[in-house]
Amino acid sequence: MKQLTTTSPAKKFSEFLSIPDNHRIIFSGIFGNGKTTFLKSYFNKNESYLAIHVFPTNYAASKNEDVFELIKFDILYEILKYEPDLENFKFEKVYAAYLTIFNNSDSIFEPLASLFEAVPKIGKRLMSVSRLLFDFNEKIKRKIEETEDKDSDKIKAFAKTILEKAGNPYEKDLYTFLIKDLLGKAKDKNKKEKTILIIDDLDRIDPDQIFRLLNVFSVHIDIEGTENKFSFDKILFCCDASNIRRIFHNRFGVDVDFNGYFDKFYSKEIFYFDNRTEIKKSVFDILSTINPKRKRLWDKQYNRPSDTTSFLLIQYIIENMIISETFSLRQLVRLCDLTYDERIYQIRNVFRSEFTNRNVYVAVVFDFMISIYGNGETFINAVKRTQFSKTESHFCSSYDVFIPNLIMLADYQQNKFQPGIEYTDVKTKTKYSIKNIRLSPFQNTFFANVIKGDKSDWIDSIDIKELILDAFNTYSSLKGDPIHED
User: Fold this and answer.
1) To which H or E segment does residue 70 belong?
2) C-alpha count within 13 angstroms, C-beta hemisphere, residue 162
3) 325 and 362: one domain?
4) Which of 130, 257, 353, 480 is the most buried (most CB within 10 A)?
5) Average pLDDT, stretch 416-430?
């Protein structure tokens, strides 16, 4: 499969990052359009940034835990993967006092033991940095032992009243200090110019946790000026801004000003990630990898998939859905090398025996699209939100092939799939005839041809979306029970 290119959005994003004082970023795009993949690829290739990428969805199920307390450990874990220089780590006495007051144990990470139990994914991942944690822990133990008695009371009082305020937006606890110090060391060791914290899938966690995170980071800016939380050069929230808006209004009411609330979470403007054109370029290649098990969708032994009418119609529908954001990159990737087990359904009320969906290729296409979306209702709702173009070169070169067959299915009540007769579709005013193809792989399959006469512009008056909806509704009314094949 051809690799999905990201040149265009990467260039646009680089220009956006370089805007002066652009410290806080909302990176917005619909679910499944490749935001996470893009960000990982972009910062893996970018030598200037040390990127810390965390996913609150990993621990969103921990209802009894503060999401911000959880995210601090996740950030610390990600920083340790960069192996910051622990030899020169300056552990302040106030940190040691913190441990003696609040921990009284040998491990700096003991206070988070309850979080490991609540969040299995984080606890399990801890093993991958166990050596670093062990070395780090030994260093801290020595610092605790070095704490002088004469300083203890003063330091402990300070630590008790100022440092430990878990759950408070103004908190500055031990782990916050550790993150700041280790982040700087990781940045220096890896020779990076800047640091960025990426908080991904923000809109996929509990609403209370969403606004808890946003509030913590915004309050920090209000109190401490331009510096970001944990001293990151940039903080990026990855989400669908429209979804955040819906969640906000559902939570606080439609009359509450969303823009006034949300504006403070980004420095300049929302960055809208648009990878649709690049995704669309991959449709042909990915569809070509599909292997229909029963060879009803297409038969690779007989001809190339792209030479079949079913391929052309599926390609047209999916490409327009991608541009309309009703079909995601995630859905497309799932089709790669798919072994598609077509199901055969009886078509009722046809004056022929054993008439099935394989006798009308548009019906086979609809069944394929239903399998992608899970059910017909979800698919048809996506169709309703899709704008179908007549100007794309792909459409112009193939509409003579699949538009007549959509008309034939939509106009079934008149034609009953009877070949050899000229029909006029009442809704589109299109004249067409039906023929029965008896050559493999389209054995006993019914196709339609438009009778154009001198009308070269016959397609102009046809509403493609309405035609697809009419054809689908007709098929749904005719679709019978599945036929089991050996």
Assistant:
1) helix 67-80
2) 10
3) yes
4) 480
5) 91
Burial of 348 (0-12, 13-18, 19+ CB in 10 A): exposed
Task: Tell me the pairing of strands 344-347 and 339-340.
Answer: unpaired
Q: Where are the beta strands (DSSP E) in 155-284?
A: 194-199, 234-239, 271-272
pLDDT of residue 216: 80
- Residue among 50, 372, 367 nearest 194 (CA): 50
- Tokens 């899970």 correspond to 374
Residues 244 and 286 grouped into a single domain = no
Residue 449 — φ and ψ, nearest 5°? Answer: -125, 135
* Amino acid in position 371: S
Shared-domain flag, residues 296 and 207? no
Tens digit of pLDDT for each residue in 219-269?
655 555 557 888 899 999 999 999 999 999 988 888 888 888 888 888 899
Per-residue confidence at 316, pLDDT binned at 50, 70, 90? very high
Does residue 211 share a domain with residue 123?
A: yes
Percent of the chain having pLDDT more than 70?
74
319 and 464 share a domain? yes
**Stronger pLDDT, 75 or 42, i.e. the higher one:** 42
Contact in structure between 448 and 433 (CB atoms under 8 Å): yes
Q: Are residues 245 and 370 in the same domain?
A: no
Buried-state track 269-305, b at ≥16 Cβ within 10 A, e below 16: ebbebbbbebbbebbbebbbebebeeebbbeeeeeeb
Task: Give a yes or no: residue 1 inside a domain.
Answer: no
More confident residue, 255 or 380: 380
DSSP per-residue codes, 401-450: HHHHHHHHHHTHHHHTT-TT-EEE-TTT--EEEEEEE-STTSTTEEEEEE
CB atoms within 10 A of CB 43: 18
Domain that holds residue 301: 276-483
CA torsion sign, 313 to 317 to 323 to 327?
negative
- Taking each continuous run of H as one helix and of E as one strand, the counts in the chain are 21, 12
Question: Does residue 165 carry a pLDDT above 70?
Answer: no
Q: Which residue, chain included where needed, has tokens 């340790």?
A: 80
313 and 258 share a domain? no
**pLDDT mean across residues, the chain:** 80
Answer whether 75's CB lies under 8 Å from 175's CB: no
Residues 261 and 358 both lie in one domain: no
Q: Which of 242, 272, 302 is the last residue of a domain?
A: 272
